[in-house]
Amino acid sequence: MALFRRSSATTPAPSAVRTANDLQPGEAATVCCLSDPQMALKLLDMGCVPGTKVKLVGRAPLGDPLMLTLGDEGYTLSLRVNEARTIQLKA
Amino acid sequence: MQVAPPDSRPAGLAAGAAGSPTPPDSGQLPRLALIGNPNSGKTSLFNQLTGLNQKVGNFPGVTVDRKSGLAQLGGQRRAEIIDLPGTYSLYPKSLDERVIADLLYDPKAADYPDFVVVTVDASNLRRSLLLFTQLADLGLPAVLALNMTDVAAERGIQLDVPALERELQVPVVPMNARKGLGLAALRIVLADRLAVAPARRFWEIPRALQPLVQAIRTHFKLHNDYLALHYAHQFRQLHFLTEADREYLAELTTQAGFDPTARQAEETVARYARLNELLLDAVTVTRTEQREPASNKIDKVLTHRVFGYLIFLAILFLLFQAIFAWAQYPMDLIDQGVASFNQLLQEHFHGPLVRLLTEGVIAGLGGVLIFIPQIALLFAFLAVLEESGYMARVTFLMDKLMRPFGLSGKSVVPLISGLACAVPAIMGARTIESWKDRMLTIFVTPLMSCSARIPVYTVLVALVVPDESWLGIFNMRGLVLMGLYLLGTASALVSAWALKVILKARERSYFIMEFPVYRWPRWKNVGLTIVEKVKAFVVQAGKVIIAISVLLWVLASYGPGQRQAQAEAAVQREATAQRWPAAETERRVASARLETSYAGTFGHSIEPVIRPLGFDWKIGIALLTSFAAREVFVGTMSTIYSVGQDADLGTVQQKLAGERDAQGQPFFTPKRALSLLVFYVFAMQCMSTLATTYRETKSWRWPLGQLVYMTGLAYLASLLVWQVF
User: B31-205: what fold?
Assistant: First the structure.
């Protein structure tokens, strides 16, 4: 898990990949890869394929879970922070 | 390149389904399975096709409901429809989804479908079609119900149906199942059995897997390569395989160095790539989505950090209002109806059999029927919240708050429903995919103070708490009542927290879910949900409740040897000597008979056990009789404490207040009442809940665990109250 801890700018490590959890509300990015193989199967089934555009719609009042809109079709998923961290984004 | 030869698919009918293919319009009803993504309008379509011709059974070996129904397809043609749980792919992620594999992967099964109707969300075509391509590759004849065309049109998505039919090679019926549009066309397609299995493969099994796939196909005599591959993926979960089959497959896959996770990911990505090509011509988005969807705007308010919770609280308040206040009228009607029916019977017929019928069976039946208004109202509310899409937002709002206790956002609704009645609440826990979360929720839900505790609470609170206000605003009785509710809720959460350490997760738990768009609920769907849940309760729990009621009636009506007769004779003698009025004598006789009955004997014999809690044998009897249902407590107390009091003293409360201890002081002191109240907060005294837990978990371990744990907790808590304070 430590590998995917919220990466701050001061620790430039290989783990400093931006994930869906690092998006600002309203910000969009493209999925690069899925880092957790088991979780990836679930995400793939739900249409979160590498190359898809994801947009952070917002977070629950307590910061977790978060709401992501996927692709051009624009359907919305709700997922927990630890699940969103497995979605790595293209730089 | 297609490596394997084309699959030998029998036209229209799968091999071995019924021995021989059935020609249209004769013999057996065609059987079709309805399958699709969650939120793709599958339930709406099922309800539209079958109406009230639905029945709920069980898939063999699992707790998942098997909903099936009879559809009129026009003319004399009918078909049996099985509604499968919503799923995103044929690789199951939850227990519910496994029944799909069990049904579709065993061509020899009795209810193997002749063809499938795949519902897809037209506004999410690429993702919805993933499942379709998997089904098509299994060689299942299919019809595509292209649903939610209205949502697609709203989003500027234009679909070329003939192009889709060309690419997918199956009949495509555009529809709006909620409004019933396209239903006639679908009926015709189904009636004429136009379903076909596409000749094209949407995904080709990699060469490297061919030896494994062919070995499995030969060994199990399967008609399809892709099916063989799924055996390699899922053999551990397929119920119909024998132990030997599983060992064979385990060995085979290990030898082949088969990596299911990597293979599945590879397959899914390849399928999406293929779908992108196929949909290029059939789907055009004319209007790029610039303005924000209405659903997102509503979400800004409904999941707002302040308004979100306030609105949720307001909805809860309305829910309680409905269950406590509105349900009261029909409940009173049922109560009076059963009582007057019993009275009528007793006036005209006599004898022990009539008493068994009236005081045992019909009273027990009344105890079942009385819950119907609450169950119906609760499920009406839940169905509206679910249908409108709001329930997903509640889950979203509450998830973080519930997690420290080992529960998830999805546990909130069952727990809150538990404040009304644990029976529908436990049934409602079915929406929780994770086995561990679901078991935790089911286990602790009965600790939430349900409405059956209200009579006990109100009688005892009114007995010892003065009707005064505190600080001029808060009614003391109201405060104590609220305290009891909080105690129950806190105990449920703490118990879940403790149990989460003990219980091992069976599978990985996911929270991820799709947010459905907001829509107006369809009243037909709401109505059918109510009918289904009420039926399930009356039939399933009703049987147990009536059986236990009869047993308890026997225990309370008969006693060992001649003791009852002797006690009655003694009372009669005293009555003649003291010249008691007839009503007084009758009450004393009833009381004496109860004291010397098996239940009374039980009350006496457990007195040493419950004395440390401040209870006497009379309360012991009430504890026994209220084992089946808490609200019986009041009735029993009323019978047993009616000795030696004025005939006009009607209410239970007055009877209890008049009870004196050996020193002539009031028996029900605040401390004693509190001990009893605390006992009722925790104790598992509800046969219906135990029966429902058994039904939902398919194991006696869970209801027994609840019984032992909650009774133990009740005992310890009462002990604490009586000994410490």
Answer: Rossmann fold (3.40.50)
